[in-house]
Amino acid sequence: MKTRFEPQDANFESRVRESFTRQRVMRMIGARLTIVEPGIVEIEVPTRDDLTQQDGFVHAGIVTTILDSACGYAAFTLMPADSSVLSVEFKVNLLAPAIGDLITARAEVKRYGRTLTVCSADAFADGRICATMLATMICRISEAKLDTN
Amino acid sequence: MKTRFEPQDANFESRVRESFTRQRVMRMIGARLTIVEPGIVEIEVPTRDDLTQQDGFVHAGIVTTILDSACGYAAFTLMPADSSVLSVEFKVNLLAPAIGDLITARAEVKRYGRTLTVCSADAFADGRICATMLATMICRISEAKLDTN
Amino acid sequence: MKTRFEPQDANFESRVRESFTRQRVMRMIGARLTIVEPGIVEIEVPTRDDLTQQDGFVHAGIVTTILDSACGYAAFTLMPADSSVLSVEFKVNLLAPAIGDLITARAEVKRYGRTLTVCSADAFADGRICATMLATMICRISEAKLDTN
Amino acid sequence: MKTRFEPQDANFESRVRESFTRQRVMRMIGARLTIVEPGIVEIEVPTRDDLTQQDGFVHAGIVTTILDSACGYAAFTLMPADSSVLSVEFKVNLLAPAIGDLITARAEVKRYGRTLTVCSADAFADGRICATMLATMICRISEAKLDTN
C-alpha cells in the first residue's frame, strides 16, 4: 500500500482537474477537489441541509458521490494522457453518521493495472471516519467505444 | 425472491412517504417516490445537466443515491412503526452509462430480519438497466442510540 | 434479467465442463457441476463435516467457492472459444446459516460485455436461500498476459 | 486506522484460538492461525494442488475462506466473553493470481460496534498482495437466536 506510483503522464494533475470541472454534479453539491497526487486524490464537500437524509445526516449517496469521484480520479492520475476513466463497481460501508461541517473523501490506488485499477477510500466527517469504499475503475483509451466493456 | 411480504405496520406506506419527504437531498436532485409496496419501493429522477459526470452521464453517486433510498425504504416497509432505518453497506455495479430522460431505481427485499434486512435493486435509464445494488439495512428501534451498532 | 443469451461458441458446454474438471478444489470439496446453459450455471456440494466453521455450518468461504465458480462459468458460457475467465471481484451477503445436506449455487449473467461480465448468484441450503453474490468476471483472450488487467 | 483497540475480554486470544480449532474447514485446507492481537488476526495456508482453480492458482474461494475467518476473528478479539461472531457480508477484489508457496490473510478491525464490526483484510501470495476484503461481522450474545438478525 506504500508503493509510490510513477505517473506515465506528466500532466496528470491538470488532466484530473480539468475533468473534475466537467463533473457538473460536483459544482451542484459544492464539492472541491483538494489533493491530486500520483495515486491519491482528495475531495471535500461542506455539509448543507439540502444534502441530507431523513435524520439530518448527509445522505450516503452524496458521501458515495465524492468517494467514487475520488477513487476514479486517483486511478486517473496513473492512466495515459489519451484515456478516460469509468467506474466498474464499488462497495461502501457506512461507519458512522455523516454529521459536521465538512465531509472529506480521500482515495488511494491499491493496485494499478492497464485495464482495471482498484482503489480504496475513506470518508471523514470533520476528521472522523464515517464511510469506506473499495472500488474498481476501468481505463478506456479514447477511441474505445463505451459499449465494449 | 417471489416471497410475498406481510408488513407488520399497516401504515407502512404513509410512514415511508413521510420519511421520504424529510430526505431533503431527494428534493434537491428532483427525485420522486413512485411505488411503495410491502418489500418493494421505486424512486425515479428525471435527468438534469447538473447531475452529470465528466462525460455527460448521470453520476454513479446520484444513481446510488436513489438506489440506496429505494433499498432503505423497501426494508422500512416491513419494519415496526416505531423504528428507523439506516444503511449498513451497499455494493453497486455500473452496467451501462446512465443516459436518457429518466433514471428509475427499483428495490426489493431479499431477506427480512429483525435487525438486518438485505435488499437488491436495479437502476434503469429510460427502461434499460444501468446499475444494480446489493445492500444491507439495519433497523433501529426509536430509543436505540446511533452509536451502538 | 430474462434476456436469453446467445452463446458465440457452440461448444460452450464442453468448454465449461472441461475447465471445471481442472478446478482441483472442486474435487477436493466434492462439488458437482450440474446445469450449464447459456448464461446460467449451477454447482452443488453435499455438506461434509470438514467444510464447516465453528458452529457446524458450512463455512462462508466454501459457499463462496461454489458461488464464485458458478458466476465465472455462467460468464464463460458466453465468451469466445479461445478465451479464459478470471474473477475481478465479488460481494457476498450471508442470509442464513448454511445447514442441511446439499448446498447449491445458481448463477446467472446479468450483463455480458466483451471485457467485463456481471453475474448474480444465489446459494441454497436444501432449497432455502442462504447467500447471494454479485460478481464481476473478466474475459482474457488466450494470448493476453495475466499481468495486463 | 491506527486506533489501538482495548479488548473487553482479557482471554480474547484463547477464545479466538479455541474457536479456530473448531473450524474444521481450516484443518481440511491446512490453514494456521498465526497472529491474534486486539483487532488484528493473521491466518496462513500453504498452497496445495488440491486448492487450485483451472489455471493452477489458489481458488478465489479458498483465499476468501481465510480472509473471512481472519476478519471474523479480528472482530471477535474485541467482543465480550459470552458472544459469538457471524459474517454478515464481505466483498473481495482479486488483485493478482494467488500463486506461490504460502497465502497469508491479515485482517484489521476498521470500526468496532456493539452489534456490527467492519474489518478490512489483505491476502498475500508469498508476500505480494493478491486480494483485499472489506467485511461486516455481527456479534451475537449467546442466548440470541440465529434467526433474529
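The two ends of chain C are 28 Å apart (CA to CA).
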